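Blinded run. Sample ID left blank on purpose so nobody reads anything into the name before looking at the predicted structure. Input follows.
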Amino acid sequence: MSHLARRTVPSAAAEPVVLRAAAAGSGACPGSGDPVGDGADGSAERPAPSRRARSSRPSAAGARRSGLRTACAALLVAAVTGCGTAQGGMLSLHMGPSAPGAPANSAAPSPRPSGSASGSAKAVPPAASPSGSLAEPAPLVRSTAHGGRTVALTFDDGPGPATADVLDVLADYDVKATFCEIGPQATANPAMVKRILAAGHRLCDHTVHHLQPFAALTHEQQVEEIGPAKDMIVRAGGPGTRVTWFRAPGGGFTPANEQVAADAGMRSLTWTVDSLDWTRPGVAAIIANVQRELRPGGVVLMHDGGGDRTETVAALRELLPWLVDQGYDVDFPAA
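Blinded prediction complete.
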């Protein structure tokens, strides 16, 4: 990060929520109010009549007792598994108020296996992804590593003819950026990849063919776009090359392709400011887009490949001094 005052924003601590299940032998479920009994007043069940007094057909009282036993059993099962809705639609329990932001009377979560006799829940491992991993991807990166009044500059679709000029401008202000590279472009320009690394910049995987809409590809196609692109970039950069992030073309992120990136050791990197330089709207428009949309901790999207980037280079020459005047440090994205 460039040498300007750094400000950090403490993250809000999440308050844990503890759910309790009733012990199986308690005779009541949290929130039910009273134990389930035989009488209308909730009293305990009366002793059963002797065998000689029973008829071959169930009496009305016996049927009533049988129904109550079934109801109580359903309640106790629901209590142990999280007090959800009893099977058969007979009884329904609700565990206090919903979590903040949850709709009223929302469906209860699926029951989880019970843990110890105290009713504590046992964690359930996440389902395997199509790639076979049990690890869950981290949330999309959309902020800088240090927060505060910082900005991350990212350049897509290279290395290309404009990459050298972008590197020269960045060097003039001694700031670092992240380059999201297309695999074959890196293979065709290994010297430029090495120059990017030698200058202290970082790398991001931007797939093999930059296909769009990326999210509409089959899972197998996305796998073949993400992992092989990283391999190409690493080979171009040489031993020790690290590719920290993955960026889906057009921002076409899905939980599935984020998982593929996580399996390959990368976090998924989006942006908060689109300079729209890829539309070649003019230098002034590119600058105005960034100035209008940028907030502290933002990630700016620009391009060093994919076409004529003369406007991008010219806009960058004006944006960097403006960022300094605004008190911004240039940082990397969160990793």
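Unblinding after everyone has recorded impressions. Strands lie at 150-158, 178-181, 202-205, 243-246, 267-268, 273-274, 298-303, 329-331.
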